[in-house]
Specification:
By secondary structure, the chain is α+β, with helices and mostly antiparallel strands. The protein has one domain. It is built from five helices and five strands; from the N terminus they run H-H-E-E-E-H-E-H-H-E. Strands 4-1-2-3-5 form a five-stranded antiparallel β-sheet. A hairpin with a 5-residue loop joins strand 2 and strand 3. Helix 2 runs antiparallel to helix 4. The radius of gyration is 16 Å and the shape is globular. The model has no long low-confidence stretch (mean pLDDT about 90).
Length: about 150
């Protein structure tokens, strides 16, 4: 029997890692720590290079009622049908939301992917992300909320 978990369990596993409280301390190191801990869980995904990866992203979003700046770490997992053909991706997000102010607006948008099989190991990539300049700016800001949620596309 495989020790790999089903992709449908991913968001519950992620929520269990976080618990019930907004993480204390600087947000970028908190996100990289969640990613390290979440990476310890293997999921039943195909063997392709892009079937299990991470995205670090931040920027202004326009799908919420208030002007909002989002900082998130996303784990993307591929879902296949019974024939092994690509069906969709599940994206589990650890996400901080901030009221958009002029400093955050000037910070702009950023997205950076990591996938296994590349030149950079996950731990090195996460170390690089944890040194991101956005961390200094957000260290002094109060998040409106912290969410762990899942999207499927």
């Amino acid at each position: 029997m495989s020790s790999k978990r089903q992709v449908g369990e991913a968001v519950d596993i992620a929520r269990d890692l976080v618990g019930d409280e907004v993480p204390a301390g600087p947000p970028v190191p908190a996100l990289t720590e969640f990613a390290r801990r979440f990476a310890a869980t293997e999921f039943d995904v195909p063997g392709g290079q892009d079937s299990d990866g991470y995205l670090f992203q931040y920027g202004e979003v326009n799908w919420l009622p208030e002007p909002t700046f989002v900082l998130s770490m996303v784990r993307q997992l591929e879902v296949v049908d019974t024939n092994g053909e690509h069906e969709s991706y599940v994206q589990v997000q650890f996400e901080y939301r901030y009221l958009l102010d002029s400093e955050l607006k000037m910070a702009g948008n950023h997205s950076e992917w990591w996938f296994p099989g590349g030149v950079t190991p996950l731990d090195s990539w996460l170390d690089s992300v944890s040194r991101s300049a956005i961390g200094d700016l957000l260290r002094v800001k109060e998040p409106q909320e912290f969410l762990v949620w899942m999207d499927q596309s």
